[in-house]
Amino acid sequence: MRHGAWVLILLGGLAASGSLGAAEPSRPGANRMAPCFRGDRRLEAKLDLAEKNRPVGEWLKALGERLKAPLKAGRATADDKITLFLKDRPAGEALTLILLANSRLR
């Protein structure tokens, strides 16, 4: 897997201005959604995901269609593979996990 920057372009007002900020601590019931994703009801939709080695660009496009929110990966990262297994978690949390994983790879 390439370790280039995973650039997520969130259209339609999904990302608030400012920095990503830290997600809440990992504890039962905690909101583990990055501050920039909070407040958008589309990203509060609960998801059950089982994705293994799926291209980030393909996954974001499908997720965006499901949420009716345009999501897109940057050209440099669209072909990077993603593996996610989540049950009954908010869509914003899934996006946060991708961003946090990327920051650890740099």
How is the secondary structure organized here?
Blueprint: E1 8-10, E2 46-55, H1 56-67, E3 71-73, E4 81-90, H2 91-105
Structure description:
The chain is of the alpha+beta class and 106 residues long. The chain has a domain at 48-106. The chain is built from two helices and four strands; from the N terminus they run ββαββα. It has helices at residues 56-67, 91-105; strands spanning 8-10, 46-55, 71-73, 81-90. The strands form two sheets. The protein has a two-stranded antiparallel sheet. A two-stranded antiparallel ribbon has the order 2-4. Mean pLDDT is 74; it is low at 1-29.
List keywords for this structure.
about 110 residues, two-stranded antiparallel ribbon, single chain
Proportion of beta-strand residues: 15-25%
Structural class: alpha+beta
Overall mean confidence score, pLDDT: 74
Main beta sheet, described?
Answer: 2 strands, antiparallel
Instruction: List low-pLDDT spans.
Output: 1-29
Strand order of the largest sheet: 1-3
* Count of strand segments: 4
Helix content: 25-40%
Tell me, briefly, the overall form: globular
Order of helices and strands: EEHEEH
Give me the Rg, rounded.
Answer: 13 Å
